[in-house]
Automatic annotation (TrEMBL):
Enzyme class at the top of the EC tree: hydrolase
Active-site residues, Swiss-Prot/TrEMBL: R20, N38
E.C. number(s) listed in UniProt: 3.6.1.7
Organism lineage string: Bacteria, Pseudomonadati, Pseudomonadota, Gammaproteobacteria, Vibrionales
Protein name in the entry: acylphosphatase
GO molecular function annotation: acylphosphatase activity
Top-level taxon in the UniProt lineage: Bacteria
Organism: Vibrio rumoiensis
UniProt domain Acylphosphatase-like: residue ranges: 5-90
Length: 90
């Protein structure tokens, strides 16, 4: 089982629509750790740590997001950040 850490920046209508809460919930459902954080430009930063296959599944979900959101794009960024506990909403 290969473990990975990935940072995503999600753009679109992703603030004020429950995006961080739903993202954290889905991440925990997949057994991932990380965080979802609002950025000042209206985007949401998402850190996902865990099984490579589950992170890939999470990435596919981020491209659509919850029903209340409208995702325009998801940018993947390499990162060395690691979160070993929980999926936080920042």
């Amino acid at each position: 089982m290969t473990m990975v850490n990935r940072m995503f920046v999600v753009s679109g209508r992703v603030q004020g629509v429950g995006f961080r809460y739903q993202t954290a919930h889905y991440g925990l459902t997949l057994g991932l750790t990380g965080h979802a954080k609002n950025l000042t430009n209206g985007d949401v930063e998402v850190l996902a740590c865990g099984n490579e296959q589950k992170v890939a599944e999470f990435y596919e979900w981020l491209k659509k997001g919850p029903r209340t959101a409208y995702v325009e794009s998801v940018k993947e960024i390499e990162t060395n950040l690691v979160t070993e506990r929980d999926f936080a909403i920042l």
